[in-house]
Amino acid sequence: MDYDEVILGRRSIRGFTPDPVPRELIEEILALAMRAPSSMNTQPWNFHVITGEPLDRIRAGNTERNLAGVPHSREFRTGAEKFTGTHRERQVQVAKQLFGAMGIARDNTEMRHDWVLRGFRQFDAPVCVIVTYDRILDGSDDTPFDCGAVSTALVNAAWSRGLGAVINSQGIMQSPVVREHAGIPDDQVIMKSIALGWPDHSFPANAVVSERKSVEEAATFVGFEH
């Protein structure tokens, strides 16, 4: 599979088969991902790869706390995350695409709520990768960028090996549950979670490809006219 196929064909996978993913394959994917650039080669990232009963305990704990109304306790925060304007429009658009694919009506609050809970269950994937960074770097401008780079590299590496993935924040919003069952030490900050597994090609939402703004909208070229 070449680079164009990986990038242009890649979409977030939200439905997975229950088939296990071999540890050796995950190690190979992580080795590829960790070639991602980092500021002055600091490599601030750590990975906690969870499957089986520990992951089931995280799913259950996340779900129970959310249904009980326990406030979210995401560890990495930079401020408000309520989108407005064009950014909100894009958020709404992809939600419409997903709900349309899944046949979830606008007034079906039960199915919409269950869809949200899928994120807290890591989309029922057989593997969850928790990305953390060293707490000594907390407050660094570059560390979040570096963790984003390695997360994107991990997803692309997974796709190149036939796996699917989705980067999400819901899976780590009840951080005490995640920290306990993943065995994350206090000297690390929980950054993101990545659901990982074999794509279920019969799951309708997996066919959704989010719309992208054009290069003309995103890029400004200077000096090329000469």
UniProtKB/TrEMBL annotation:
Which SUPFAM superfamilies does its entry note?
A: FMN-dependent nitroreductase-like (SSF55469)
Reply yes or no: does the keyword Disulfide bond apply.
Answer: no
Q: Which domain of life is it from?
A: Bacteria
Which residues does the UniProt record annotate as the domain Nitroreductase? 7-198
Q: Which InterPro entries match?
A: Nitroreductase (IPR029479), Nitroreductase-like (IPR000415)
Q: Which Pfam families match?
A: Nitroreductase
Q: Which UniProt keywords apply?
A: Oxidoreductase
Q: Which family does it belong to?
A: Belongs to the nitroreductase family.
Q: Which PANTHER family match?
A: NAD(P)H NITROREDUCTASE YDGI-RELATED (PTHR43673), NADH DEHYDROGENASE_NAD(P)H NITROREDUCTASE XCC3605-RELATED (PTHR43673:SF10)
Q: What is this protein called?
A: Nitroreductase
Q: Which organism is it from?
A: Gordonia sesuvii
